[in-house]
């Protein structure tokens, strides 16, 4: 195993160092929760809106629902990308991330305490520099917490639907070395790319590891998970600090 | 004619007063020009991206092109609106405004000085409180000026494609009185709603007046245009100030 | 100001002269109202159909609704255009005109007198030679009047939903001179193009002026509006004559 | 076998009688051929436009192509039907008829004599009262003949692509009796409905017989084909008379 | 008339000989009926699923409905074809065949005996070698019979909705000679192609004859129908044998 | 840790036992490789087709490409599901699995040895009983191996693009116990569901673990991976046996 603190990455970080993380609450005022989350140059606007209805498959369940949509603004990337609404269809990648965000945030909430309400999470990437999905999940948790608090303030909710903080980080193998929180430059050339979603009690919500340009051994998998735990711990602190303000 | 300074609006302004206007350059870093424009609570991210190609209908013309897309984030409005990419089609309103923004900005630029490049304007509404299309045009001009400057710096352009500043403002009749720069609360109950796009030499680029809930006389039309000229003059000052920074 | 009667246009008209206008009622027999309107070579079939339901956003309002769709047959233009149904999406221009026709005709009608019925206006351009949207609005008013009369005959309506005639005309600046009712040849090279929708009491319903290839001064705007009023007066006469038959 | 002349149909015709057929050439002026065809109250605008290109699958073949699109205006039927362009997709019935019209008209033409041109047939139903597809084919032949003549006049074509007249008629079994040229009232309750496309030498181009609400014997099939031949003979005369004008 | 038994086809058959037909019931287990039908190398999976609802236009009729969808797997043909779900729209050919299968199978069933249930027929072509639509209809009848039996077993149906066996076969003219049950190699170069759907009492349900590359006389039509009757008789035997197992 | 061999599952298996696996080569004959793979009642048709072109983003790379599409036949599941081609859009789940299959199979192949060819993998689920994506990947490898062999036989390929076998299996936590190869009944109530894609040298290609209804500890993750390794070893044997036939 490589010692991840013994090398310096292109942006000056050592292997297990996160980029600066900033979480700004109340970024916009219309949604019940609205957060700008930044992982270095990656900037995602995460909102949580409340809709007083539930999808058809939840009718009669007595439970609420949480759904999520992820999208990138066309000018978020270095090269402008065509707008999905104009193409008339959503790319597979977008669908996949939207579903991941939804699953991850549902781990943070007790649907049976939501009443017949739907919380709609929107994660819109204003600027992309790698790790947009993990930033989205991390920021969306804070927006969700704010939305729940708002619903309780309004008296819409009497129970406590919020179960536990959820955060996410990317890890990868670059030139055989474990790196935490990959920016675009690393992400695009990583041999292995892994997104890890955790709860603050150290449980996994989701682990997605992909050998984009190579495969990985059980030992490397363990190193990657170790690194992800380090990153998530910092993210839980940043979430807690933001929510304490 | 009503004296527009003799009454006070719900937000404390008199009839011919603009909301506070803020123009933030360099809002994101990937596009050649990136601006956050605010008209009160209306906040639009305007970017100008350069693509080194031209659409088919311009091939062989020796000219460049400028295109624009306008969109609202789902949580920009008070009630969350379905995402157009998920619906699989773009609403008529979105199409209409995108086309308006494109036509308006083309008045600011000499396409024959662009080379075979396309400037893609994207206006994404982060928070909507009325006047999103006029804020979009006003901010997009600044993003366009930044993109042109950037192209000249890079040596891509040798000529001077920028012709003249373009700005836009809404005016309307509320309870029979002329009001400048309508927030959502006024916009939704205006008898007449007019969007005026001007150049800084006082020429009109486009005038779109609609009797949403009533009709309007020639005299009222003149009052509305007078009000719009007052608003646009302030916007040209705000644009110049931002570009001077 | 140019004297608009002192020059002769390509088709022999002077500046403020309309093309021959013809309005044929009962063009087809299935819809409640069916009109063929001709502005010179521009020919539009306008129908008004009655549907005994209202859109969701009107439920419970006690009011009816009026909606409109505009479309061009593929062979209406000189070069055949692809059919929008085959492309699977509607062009921005089509959306924009459909919305304009709907707004304009709603000014002709008192929705609260319609009962829970929807009037669906369809304007299908059989032959296009400029001014298709203004011909559509002018013809659709007659189809609407016929549909309302039919509804009253059938006893579906007891009140009087028809408020006032609405007509529309295009004006433009060609080589700096104001021209009324532009055919395609002029429309495609106009510096400024304006569509004016009026009621027969001389009020404006909508004014859309666009500097397609130039800008326009306040003085030119006034000349254009003067010309439009002349055109609309003739159209109200043609509508009244057709309805008197 | 029933004697088809011994009974009277709802509209006063005997079994083997066509509705009045009218073919108006030069209905519009932009397409190379433009015809309004009427079978009683069924009215279809048929145009033939020339495009100086061929579809990809014909590249290098040295041949031209003929394609067709059929569509119904929304207000053509008694109850208004949603516009296919707005629904975003074309119905199976529309596809099916478009393909039938294309196949039928290709029997009228020698593609090897067309040069690398495509003839685009458009059949737009202005008013529907049964038999729209057969009227469309019958009228489209005349539009095609006009388009070919126009191409020869312009010198685009030197050969003679027109091979033979093609016409189409519907026949059906109503209450067990053979009827020719069904209007909507009969079509909707026919036990068997058959569309027959023929050349003027008495050959079949296509036969489509459907037991909509029943099946049919070989003997009935023969009676239906006999009736269709009677109808087509009249249509060839109407086409010839129209083209002789 | 050619003697159809006096020549040998590319695959060794004489003119009026069918390819080997195999019908495998219980091909999959989830649908109420599931059949693999093979006409030579053409292999189609036909299923009949029961849905306890009826489409809107049948509400209140007291009847059930039967609907059908036909599709080809992308790798069914020699050259892989793009998947229709990925293209976002269904081809005209697919629509046309789906509608044909639905109409044909509705002739086999008494909708008034179905209760308010819909039978959904799915015909998915696993391997295509000509005659996919006729194999689909022939196999779908067996799946339908199994589904009806299953519904009766479950007690959902008390009446007897099955009316009569329905089968289908293709016939064509190849080099002027009548051939039965065309494989792809013949189908693609046939002058005339005809699909005939019959009941086991010898009645026609549907006849679709197309002069793909030529026309056909009344005499040829009769020879083609004779051949189709020979083919269908064999198919009814194969269906009966499969259902007897 | 639970002893996974000490309990019996609903279908009689112990925790670490696979369902019977069958791999049938040459299932259809048109594609270069065609395999039917069965994991118990889950049955997937996997084909590998060769297209002599590469996607645009690979032009000039000198490499080939491999793409994959996954789809479920509408009657594959217990309740029939709407066909995606008819809905006009592909579900997120379908997109996600298609992308997973493509990534996984690209690990089995050296694109630089493919020439400018694309291998298109199609996985169509004929019958679904859990684990369709893992069966698809496992079967698709065999189809790919056959397609490569076929290309070499034809002389299209001279190098050896096949790098290593790839197989996939699902594991999960059911009532807190690790289970291998989940059928639908278990999959739908698993607390944690993990799909593991491996090479036959024991490296991971992809790991996707999801806490569908719960979270999971690092220890549970390790148990799940141990189980997956056991399953994959059996699958590599089944692939090798099939390819040896």
TrEMBL record, chains A, B, C, D, E, F:
<dbReference type="GO" id="GO:0031125">
    <property type="term" value="P:rRNA 3'-end processing"/>
</dbReference>
<dbReference type="GO" id="GO:0009022">
    <property type="term" value="F:tRNA nucleotidyltransferase activity"/>
</dbReference>
<dbReference type="Pfam" id="PF01138">
    <property type="entry name" value="RNase_PH"/>
</dbReference>
<dbReference type="InterPro" id="IPR036345">
    <property type="entry name" value="ExoRNase_PH_dom2_sf"/>
</dbReference>
<keyword id="KW-0820">tRNA-binding</keyword>
<protein>
    <recommendedName>
        <fullName>Ribonuclease PH</fullName>
        <ecNumber>2.7.7.56</ecNumber>
    </recommendedName>
</protein>
<keyword id="KW-0548">Nucleotidyltransferase</keyword>
<dbReference type="GO" id="GO:0008033">
    <property type="term" value="P:tRNA processing"/>
</dbReference>
<dbReference type="InterPro" id="IPR050080">
    <property type="entry name" value="RNase_PH"/>
</dbReference>
<dbReference type="InterPro" id="IPR018336">
    <property type="entry name" value="RNase_PH_CS"/>
</dbReference>
<feature type="domain" description="Exoribonuclease phosphorolytic">
    <location>
        <begin position="17"/>
        <end position="148"/>
    </location>
</feature>
<dbReference type="InterPro" id="IPR015847">
    <property type="entry name" value="ExoRNase_PH_dom2"/>
</dbReference>
<dbReference type="GO" id="GO:0000049">
    <property type="term" value="F:tRNA binding"/>
</dbReference>
<feature type="binding site">
    <location>
        <position position="93"/>
    </location>
    <ligand>
        <name>phosphate</name>
    </ligand>
</feature>
<dbReference type="Pfam" id="PF03725">
    <property type="entry name" value="RNase_PH_C"/>
</dbReference>
<comment type="similarity">
    <text>Belongs to the RNase PH family.</text>
</comment>
<keyword id="KW-0694">RNA-binding</keyword>
<dbReference type="GO" id="GO:0016075">
    <property type="term" value="P:rRNA catabolic process"/>
</dbReference>
<dbReference type="GO" id="GO:0000175">
    <property type="term" value="F:3'-5'-RNA exonuclease activity"/>
</dbReference>
<dbReference type="InterPro" id="IPR001247">
    <property type="entry name" value="ExoRNase_PH_dom1"/>
</dbReference>
<feature type="domain" description="Exoribonuclease phosphorolytic">
    <location>
        <begin position="165"/>
        <end position="229"/>
    </location>
</feature>
<feature type="binding site">
    <location>
        <begin position="131"/>
        <end position="133"/>
    </location>
    <ligand>
        <name>phosphate</name>
    </ligand>
</feature>
<dbReference type="InterPro" id="IPR027408">
    <property type="entry name" value="PNPase/RNase_PH_dom_sf"/>
</dbReference>
<keyword id="KW-0819">tRNA processing</keyword>
<dbReference type="InterPro" id="IPR020568">
    <property type="entry name" value="Ribosomal_Su5_D2-typ_SF"/>
</dbReference>
<keyword id="KW-0698">rRNA processing</keyword>
<dbReference type="InterPro" id="IPR002381">
    <property type="entry name" value="RNase_PH_bac-type"/>
</dbReference>
<comment type="subunit">
    <text>Homohexameric ring arranged as a trimer of dimers.</text>
</comment>
<comment type="function">
    <text>Phosphorolytic 3'-5' exoribonuclease that plays an important role in tRNA 3'-end maturation. Removes nucleotide residues following the 3'-CCA terminus of tRNAs; can also add nucleotides to the ends of RNA molecules by using nucleoside diphosphates as substrates, but this may not be physiologically important. Probably plays a role in initiation of 16S rRNA degradation (leading to ribosome degradation) during starvation.</text>
</comment>
<keyword id="KW-0808">Transferase</keyword>
């Amino acid at each position: 195993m490589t010692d991840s603190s013994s090398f310096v990455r292109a942006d000056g970080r050592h292997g297990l160092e996160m980029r600066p993380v900033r979480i700004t609450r109340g970024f916009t005022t219309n949604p019940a929760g609205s957060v700008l989350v930044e992982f270095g140059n990656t900037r995602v606007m995460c909102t949580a809106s409340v809709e007083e209805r539930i999808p058809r498959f939840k009718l009669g369940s007595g439970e609420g629902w949480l759904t999520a949509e992820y999208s990138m603004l066309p000018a978020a990337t270095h090269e402008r990308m065509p707008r999905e609404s104009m193409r008339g269809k959503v790319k597979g990648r977008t669908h996949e991330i939207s579903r991941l965000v939804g699953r991850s945030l549902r781990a943070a909430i007790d649907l049976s305490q939501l009443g017949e309400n739907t919380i709609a999470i929107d994660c819109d990437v204003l600027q992309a520099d790698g790790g947009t999905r993990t930033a989205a999940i991390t920021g969306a948790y804070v927006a969700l917490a704010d939305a729940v608090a708002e619903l309780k303030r309004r008296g819409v909710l009497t129970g406590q639907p919020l179960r536990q903080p959820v955060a996410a980080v990317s890890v990868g193998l670059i030139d055989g070395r474990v790196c935490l929180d990959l920016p675009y430059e690393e992400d695009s050339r990583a041999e292995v790319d892994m997104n890890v979603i955790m709860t603050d009690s150290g449980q996994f919500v989701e682990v997605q590891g992909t050998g984009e340009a190579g495969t990985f051994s059980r030992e490397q998998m363990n190193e990657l998970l170790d690194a992800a735990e380090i990153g998530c711990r910092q993210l839980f602190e940043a979430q807690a600090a933001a929510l304490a303000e």
